[in-house]
Design a protein that fits this description.
about 350 residues; alpha/beta; 16 strands; about 20% strand; elongated; binds phosphoenolpyruvate; binds manganese (II) ion
Length: about 350
């Protein structure tokens, strides 16, 4: 492949006609050189392709369309660089309080959707710990579709989560909704979650890029895989390389599940980025009965972890009730996942 080097980056590909002659290829190379760029020739089975390497303004100054032997010119848009697999072929492993996620380490993150009370959260944290999880999740600030729904206990919830961490030793993942809560959340959270609704909140992304906390970035329900990667680039560009990507279902015409779990996004992301990729089967399914099957699929497709919601009495939950696993079922659920993780020659981190 064509390498990039500082500002001298690959800008576009010139695809030659199938029957282009050698001197036509030479002519294109000469034109590139004249414009201060260079070309890398890749002879293909069907046609020769020339990679044009130079600085950014190159495409604007050079017109190659219509030149003899040139079939087409394709810009190479590299809208994300730091997160791309080319930049770092080795997979990133995220370490949090001695737990690992990525590579051989499968992250099992479980906990309440929302911190509703001290009792509910501590009971869930204990069940999550007993099941052998890697981390505890729990929302203090909740994004809700209706402004009249319960939107979380805020600061009080952060204190409850701190107590749950103290007791169980589990690192805590919690969502940041508003840059004005940055310090408050970063002080308590071990991992900062950016929710699906905020995947394209570029200001918020830049802000979490300035912290030293790992970020769990959820894919927007209508975002493409590349848009998710560009969102991650916003964070990494600010100096925070510890980003975990999360597929949590996208919006489609299908209404049998809450969202459509885009399972294919996992291997695609693993091709395009070195960052770890996890799956949220709870929000994708929308129904607890479907969560174990989607969680097993996540393991099998090569995800680096899952994030799952649980509650002592789901019927009484204030948020996402139908999709919450029962705390009483967490050990059996985790054992099943652990067995599948072992089949992949991985272990829970
Ligand atoms: C959540 O994790 O509780 C949540 C609100 O998820 P999402 O942002 O994926 O909807
Ligand atoms: Mn939820």
């Amino acid at each position: 492949m064509i390498e990039t080097n500082g500002a001298q980056e690959l800008q576009f590909l010139i695809v030659m006609d199938a029957e282009a002659a050698d001197d036509q290829v030479e002519d294109v190379l000469a034109r590139l050189a004249e414009a201060g760029a260079s070309g890398r020739v890749a002879p293909g089975r069907e046609s020769t392709v020339i990679g044009a390497i130079g600085d950014h303004g190159l495409l604007g100054t050079l017109s190659l369309d219509g030149i003899a032997g040139v079939d087409r010119v394709q810009p190479v848009s590299k809208p994300y660089k730091l997160v791309s697999r080319e930049t770092s072929p080795e997979s990133t492993v995220i370490q949090v309080r001695g737990r690992r996620l990525g590579g051989r380490h499968f992250g099992l993150i479980m906990g309440p959707c929302t911190v509703e009370s001290r009792e509910q959260t501590l009971a869930t944290a204990r069940a999550v710990h007993a099941a052998g999880s890697s981390m505890l999740r729990g929302g203090a600030f909740k994004p809700r579709s209706s402004p009249y729904s319960f939107r979380g206990l805020g600061t009080e919830a952060l204190e409850i989560l701190a107590e749950a961490r103290e007791e169980t030793g589990l690192p805590v993942v919690t969502e940041l909704l508003d840059p004005r809560h940055m310090e408050l959340v970063a002080e308590m959270a071990d991992v900062i979650q950016i929710g699906a609704r905020n995947m394209s909140n570029f200001l918020l992304l830049s802000e979490v890029g300035k912290t030293d906390r790992p970020v769990l970035l959820k894919r927007g329900p209508s975002a493409s895989v590349d848009e998710l990667l560009m969102a991650a680039e916003y964070i990494v560009k600010e100096g925070n390389p510890r980003v975990i990507l999360c597929e949590r279902g996208i919006r489609t015409f299908e209404s049998a599940t809450r969202f459509t779990l885009d399972i294919g996004a996992v291997p695609v992301l693993k091709e395009r980025t070195h960052l770890p990729v996890i799956i949220d089967p709870s929000h994708a399914a929308g129904r607890r009965e479907l969560v174990p099957a989607l969680a097993r699929a996540a393991v099998a497709v090569g995800a680096d972890g899952i994030i799952v919601e649980a509650h002592p009495q789901p019927e009484e939950a204030l948020c996402d009730a139908p999709q919450l696993l029962r705390n009483a079922d967490l050990i059996a659920f985790a054992d099943d996942i652990r067995a599948h993780v072992a089949l992949m020659d991985k272990e829970i981190g």
